[in-house]
From TrEMBL:
Belongs to the DegT/DnrJ/EryC1 family. L-glutamine:2-deoxy-scyllo-inosose/scyllo-inosose aminotransferase subfamily. Its EC number is 2.6.1.-. The keyword Protein biosynthesis does not apply. GO terms for molecular function: transaminase activity. InterPro entries: DegT/StrS_aminotransferase, PyrdxlP-dep_Trfase, PyrdxlP-dep_Trfase_major, PyrdxlP-dep_Trfase_small. It comes from the Bacteria. Its cofactor is pyridoxal 5'-phosphate. SUPFAM superfamilies: PLP-dependent transferases. This is DegT/DnrJ/EryC1/StrS family aminotransferase. It comes from Streptomyces cavernicola.
Length: 385
């Protein structure tokens, strides 16, 4: 039986050839020729003030908060539903993540719940483009402007998505991208920060390299310049090996996303009239890049049993993403009902650019056949018979 994996990174011969070039250049470390070329490619693609290539999206969030001057004890509102890297980043600075609930149909942060959480200690918000769908930025940016708050777009999953004609990654003054192996474009691990303000980019670039300018650049200067360390920085630079891979991935992105969109469209057809689940919703003013395809199971379905059944039949699946406020590390006393419910009921089914339409059909068929077996009402009926 052919296994259908939940995720699969589309890396191939073109990426290998780009890596071979880096080996020949003799500069595999960060901020070299490939790193700079990638940053230029990102600036061009997004039309932003600056782009900084970083080791991952988590560190991009960390450096974004530092550049924006977040201090210990400050409150930062974060989307509750999504990979909880924003809350981790807030905690890196001993600041306080405050979790905002989301909409049931999209999993996107609810602007009203953000507004309700603003206090005199709130300094800003990190908004997640949940599994590849941009949030309500017109309303969020307006709310932030009224209260003097910063907005960071966590576009980790949303490279290539759009909102009202604008690209994800440009929907707030600062955005963080991920190129982790489970995202639409990848270098294995990787990330970037996009900033409208070049000074933010400059601050982030310095802190990503222990607080000094590019060692690669220094070697080209005549004389013997010696950088001084003037602040505590980190080593968050993306390697030129990863940057070379990403240059290829970004060129291939439109084609890869087209495949994901075709898979999503086919799932929507095949599962449309299935009563035991609800399909993901995409508002008309934005596009989804389907980092994951999450269906919401009816409350009567035993998700763990269903997932075990699907896996036994060779169909990869998962729980979707996380409700941040429920993670023990944050010791949150907040309640986010909708997010908690999605965390219990979402099921991720295979989504990547290598799926064939035959595989998509098999996933849908197997899922539909298994669902009634794992619904409480069906079990009740069997019990009665
Ligand atoms: C994947 C993800 C991250 C983390 O990205 P890394 O590059 O793995 O650090 C952050 N935020 C969200 C919403 C994500 O989905």
């Amino acid at each position: 039986m052919d296994r259908i994996p939940l995720v699969h990174a589309s890396l191939g011969a073109q990426e290998l050839a780009a890596v071979a070039e880096v080996f020949e250049s003799g500069w595999p470390a960060g901020q070299g020729p490939k790193g700079k070329a990638l940053e230029a490619q990102l600036v061009e693609r997004y039309g932003v003030g600056d782009a900084v290539a970083l080791t991952n999206c988590g560190v991009a969030l960390h450096l974004a908060l530092l550049a924006l001057g977040v201090k210990p004890g400050d409150e930062v509102i974060v989307s509750d539903y999504g990979f909880p890297a924003p809350a981790h980043a807030v905690r890196y600075l001993d600041a306080v993540p405050v979790f905002a609930d989301v909409h049931a149909d999209t999993g996107l942060v609810d602007v009203e719940s953000v507004a309700d959480l603003i206090t005199p200690r709130t300094v800003g918000m990190i908004v997640i483009d949940t599994v590849g769908l941009p949030a309500d930025y017109d309303e969020l940016n307006a709310l932030a402007a009224r209260h003097g708050l910063f907005v960071i777009e966590d576009a980790a999953c949303a490279v290539g998505a759009t909102y009202r004609g604008q690209q994800a990654g440009t929907l707030a003054p600062v955005a963080c991208l991920s190129f982790h192996g489970r995202k639409g474009a990848t270098s294995g691990e990787g990330g970037a920060l996009l900033a409208a303000d070049p000074e933010v980019g400059q601050d982030v670039r310095l802190r990503s390299a222990f607080g000094i300018t590019s060692i690669f650049d220094q070697a080209k200067v005549i004389g013997l310049p010696i950088s001084e360390f003037t602040e505590i920085g980190y080593n968050y630079k993306l390697s030129d090996i990863a940057a070379a891979i990403l240059q290829v991935q970004l060129k291939r992105l439109d084609g890869l996303l087209e495949r994901r969109r075709a898979v999503a469209a086919r799932y929507a057809e095949l599962l449309a009239d299935e009563e035991l689940l609800t399909l993901p919703v995409v508002p008309e003013d934005r596009t989804h890049v389907w980092q994951s395809y999450l269906v919401t199971l009816d409350a009567s379905v035993d998700r763990a049993a269903l997932a075990a059944d699907l896996r036994a039949q060779g169909i990869g699946c998962g729980h979707g993403t996380w409700a941040g406020h429920l993670q023990p590390v944050f010791e949150s006393k907040q309640v986010c009902h909708v997010s908690a419910d999605l965390f219990r009921r979402h099921l991720a089914i295979p989504m990547h650019a290598e799926l064939s339409m035959d595989q998509v059909e098999r996933v849908a068929q197997t899922l539909r056949a298994a669902l009634p077996t794992h619904a409480t009402s069906a079990r009740g009926l069997r019990g009665a018979a």
